[in-house]
Design brief:
With about 425 residues, the protein is an alpha/beta fold. The protein contains twelve helices and 25 strands. Strands 3-2-1-7-18 form a five-stranded parallel beta sheet.
Length: about 425
């Protein structure tokens, strides 16, 4: 154990990584003080619901809470929401708050996540989608338009996962929706081209206008509406503008404290930073990829949950390194798509099923090795493929051939593949 049983662990960040770390510490027997602090004014909640159920109105904010408000007190976890940590002093092992207060720690876990990228200065005032208060502001903007009897027009800048989820949610609410993507296709950072094309068709068929290859030159007010102008002269008018162009890891505290930072707080396979007694987890952490090599930073909910738990166990002295295969999902127009591994690294795509009508399973391979999987209506196969990716060196390429390989059966036989690899 790296922290005395009567010591104090301070966790900065009330997202899923920080909350998961706090819960795991207590569940795994830590009897000392746990302080979970974050500048978000809400108690810990499920952020993926922001661009899905909460924006569309199919769920209320209370449904997004990770735990009831009473849970944290019952677990003797001190929860400080709406509190901003201004600095970390690793020499004296203290965190300093912007109101002048400070708090000592034996162990510190930084789970500060990230901030939505903005397109300043041309779209400095546009809406973003990451926090509960973002949904409140957006829904109020929609209601201002609908109260006049008009149909809201929504312009979404960015065709990644959040942008396309927001497009689906806004369209489901009855808005006129336009998506502007700078790249050649929507979702291109996370999906192979055939599946990107399928999702673009899904949105177009539901009435979403999708424009790719768009570079904006200026944005200005046109009365109560906003006009966006592209460098090629195309123009769009909208009542509401949402910017969804990714996030930037929130490394400011770590940088000012002298920690090693490289597009994220650099940690080892046990979530330890370059400073003694300081760990980092979740979206903000850059960690070793023990399956494919190199380092990476992952911005998925499930990764943050698992990484936060791993950081807590490392604090408690666990010797198992972190080596999860990333997994995420997206809901758009009732179609639930699951992604595991690193499909963007593949050079070959094996598709089984109908990409448009579903269900389907797509296996992404690099040098005949399974590195990623994407599926609709095939959750058991996605989970099996996730296990196969973890054991990738032992899976013969020809095991994936055929009309529809039985991934569940393959995943149940890792010992056989290990024997094949040794021959």
């Amino acid at each position: 154990m790296t922290v005395p049983r009567s010591g104090r662990v301070v966790i900065v960040g009330t997202g899923i990584a920080g909350a998961s770390a706090a819960r795991t510490l207590r569940k795994d027997g830590f009897a000392g003080s746990i302080v979970l602090v974050g500048d978000d004014p809400s108690i810990p909640y499920r952020r993926p619901m922001v661009s899905k159920e909460l924006l569309s109105g199919s769920a209320v904010a209370a449904k997004a809470h990770l735990e009831p408000i009473t849970f944290w007190a019952e677990q003797s976890i001190e929860l400080r929401v709406g509190a901003t940590v201004a600095a970390v002093d690793t020499a004296s092992a203290r965190v300093e708050f912007d109101d002048g207060d400070s708090l000592s720690y034996e162990t510190l876990i930084l789970a500060t996540g990230g901030r939505p990228r903005r397109l300043d200065p041309i779209l400095a005032d546009a809406h973003t989608l990451r926090h509960l208060h973002d949904v409140t502001a957006l829904r109020a903007a929609f209601e201002r338009v609908t109260s006049t009897g008009a149909t809201p027009s929504v312009l979404i800048v960015g065709g990644g996962l959040v942008g396309m989820e927001a497009a689906a949610a806004a369209r489901t609410m009855g808005a006129d929706v336009t998506v502007l993507e700078m790249g050649e296709r929507v979702l291109e950072r996370v999906l192979p081209e055939p599946i990107c094309a399928s999702y673009e068709r899904l949105h177009r068929d539901r009435g979403v206008a999708v424009h790719t290859g768009v570079r904006l030159s200026r944005v200005d007010a046109q009365g109560a509406r906003t006009r966006a102008v592209a460098v090629d002269g195309r123009e769009w008018l909208a009542d509401v503008v949402i910017v969804a162009v990714g996030m930037t890891p929130d490394t400011e505290l770590a940088e000012n404290a002298g920690l090693l930072v490289d597009d994220g707080i650099v940690v080892d396979e046990f979530c330890a930073t370059s400073a003694v007694g300081v760990y980092a987890a979740g979206d903000v952490a850059r960690f070793p990829n023990r399956i494919l090599g190199g380092t990476e930073r992952v911005e998925h909910w499930n990764h943050a949950q698992a990484h936060g738990a791993a950081a807590a166990r490392a604090v408690l002295g666990a010797s198992a390194p972190y080596e999860e295969v990333p997994w995420c999902w997206t809901n758009q127009f009732g179609r639930n798509l699951q992604i595991a591994g690193w499909p963007g690294l593949g050079t070959e795509l094996i598709v089984r099923g109908d990409l448009d009508a579903g269900p389907f399973l797509a296996l992404s391979l690099a040098d005949d090795r399974l590195v990623g999987v994407i599926g609709v209506g095939r959750p058991r196969d996605v989970r099996a493929a996730q296990a196969l990716i973890a054991n990738g060196p032992y899976l013969p390429r020809d095991a994936l051939d055929g009309d529809d390989p039985n991934l569940v059966a393959l995943a149940a036989e890792p010992a056989r593949f290990a024997a094949v690899a040794r021959e």
